[in-house]
Write a sequence for this structure.
C-alpha cells in the first residue's frame, strides 16, 4: 500500500519522511539524497551562515533532480536577511525551530514556500498554529541534538499536538530511526516522521567519520540531555533547550554544574585547548534515544525507500495483513 498522507500530498513527495535540518550536518548532498529518495530533504542552515549556505545550496540544487526541498533555521539565531536570501533560491519549504516563528512567517508565505514549524511544548504548538504553519513538527525529548529541557516524550506528545493543530498536518520527531517508528507516527495521527540521528549515520552526512561510527556503536542509555557542552564551547543556545549527546569526557567532569562552568573561564579555555589538540571532538556527538536501531552507514536516498517499505510492512502486520 502507498503511504499517502496530507504531508506527501502537500509537497508531492512519495514517502511521509523528512530529513531533520540538523545544523551543519544536513548539508546539500544529504538533503538532495533524501529528496531524490522520495522524502523531503531539509538543509540544516542553523543560524543562516551565508558562507555555509553559499557552499551547500549549489550542491543541493545540482543534485536534487528537480525534487522538492527545504531549508531549516534556528529561529532564535537567524535573521530575516538570511531567510529572505534563501527564499530567493526557491525552496519548497522553510522550517523554523527553537524560537518564535512569527517574525519570519509572512516572508515565507509571501515567497510561496510552505512554513514548517517545530515545537517542543504546547505553548509553542499554539504559537505555531497562530503563525499559520502549514506543517508542525512535534519533537519529543528522545530526539538527538537540541530540544526541550522540560518537554514530553514523543508517544504522548504527538497526538496532543495532532488534536490541537488539526487540520494542519503534523510530523512526529524524536526516537524514530526505522520504519516501525514511521508507522507508529502514522498510528498516532501524524502525517509522517522527521528523522535526524538515523540520517546522520549515512554516507552523505557532513559529520566526522568518527561521529558516524560512534552513532553506529552507540546505545540509548549512554545518551543524555545537557547544556554542559554548549556552555563549554561558548554556544549561546537558550537555556530552555538542552542537547542530547553521546558520552563526552568534559560532560562527565561537569555534569550538573552548569552554573559553575559558566563562571569558570579557565575551564572553558581548557575545553577549547583539548579540541585544538584533538583530544575531544570539535563538536558534541548529537544522538537520539533510537541510536540502538542504527547499525550501518547507508546511502540516504536508498534509506528513505527502506524506511518506507519497513513502515508499510509494519502497518500491514499490525492490521493482520
Amino acid at each position: 500500500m502507498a503511504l499517502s498522507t496530507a504531508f506527501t500530498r502537500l509537497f508531492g513527495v512519495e514517502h511521509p519522511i523528512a530529513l531533520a535540518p540538523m545544523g551543519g550536518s544536513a548539508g546539500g548532498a544529504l538533503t538532495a539524497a533524501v529528496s531524490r529518495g522520495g522524502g523531503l530533504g531539509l538543509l540544516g542552515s542553523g543560524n543562516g551562515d551565508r558562507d555555509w549556505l553559499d557552499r551547500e545550496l549549489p550542491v543541493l540544487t545540482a543534485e536534487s533532480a528537480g525534487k522538492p526541498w527545504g531549508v531549516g533555521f534556528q529561529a532564535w539565531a537567524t535573521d530575516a536577511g538570511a531567510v529572505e536570501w534563501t527564499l530567493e533560491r526557491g525552496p519548497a519549504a522553510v522550517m523554523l525551530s527553537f524560537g518564535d516563528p512569527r517574525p519570519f512567517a509572512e516572508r515565507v508565505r509571501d515567497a510561496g514556500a510552505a512554513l514548517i514549524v517545530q515545537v517542543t511544548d504546547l505553548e509553542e504548538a499554539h504559537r505555531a498554529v497562530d503563525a499559520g504553519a502549514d506543517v508542525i513538527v512535534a519533537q519529543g525529548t528522545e530526539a538527538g541534538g537540541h530540544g526541550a529541557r522540560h518537554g514530553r516524550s514523543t508517544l504522548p506528545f504527538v497526538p496532543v499536538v495532532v488534536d490541537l493543530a488539526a487540520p494542519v498536518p503534523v510530523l512526529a520527531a524524536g526516537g524514530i530511526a526505522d520504519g516501525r517508528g514511521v508507522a507508529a507516527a502514522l498510528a498516532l495521527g501524524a502525517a509522517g516522521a522527521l528523522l535526524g540521528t538515523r540520517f546522520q549515520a549515512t554516507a552523505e552526512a557532513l559529520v566526522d567519520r568518527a561521529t558516524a561510527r560512534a552513532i553506529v556503536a552507540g546505545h540509548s542509555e549512554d545518551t543524555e540531555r545537557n547544556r554542559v557542552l554548549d556552555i563549554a564551547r561558548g554556544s549561546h543556545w537558550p537555556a530552555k533547550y538542552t542537547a542530547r549527546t553521546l558520552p563526552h569526557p568534559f560532560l562527565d567532569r561537569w555534569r550538573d554544574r552548569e552554573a559553575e562552568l559558566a563562571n569558570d573561564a579557565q575551564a572553558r579555555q581548557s575545553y577549547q585547548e583539548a579540541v585544538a589538540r584533538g583530544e575531544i571532538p570539535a563538536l558534541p556527538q548529537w544522538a537520539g534515544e533510537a541510536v540502538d536501531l542504527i547499525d550501518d552507514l547507508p546511502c540516504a536516498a536508498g534509506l528513505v525507500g527502506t524506511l518506507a517499505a519497513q513502515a508499510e510492512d509494519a502497518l500491514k502486520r499490525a492490521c493482520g495483513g
The chain has 15 helices and eleven strands. The chain has a mean pLDDT of 95. The two ends are 11 Å apart (CA to CA).
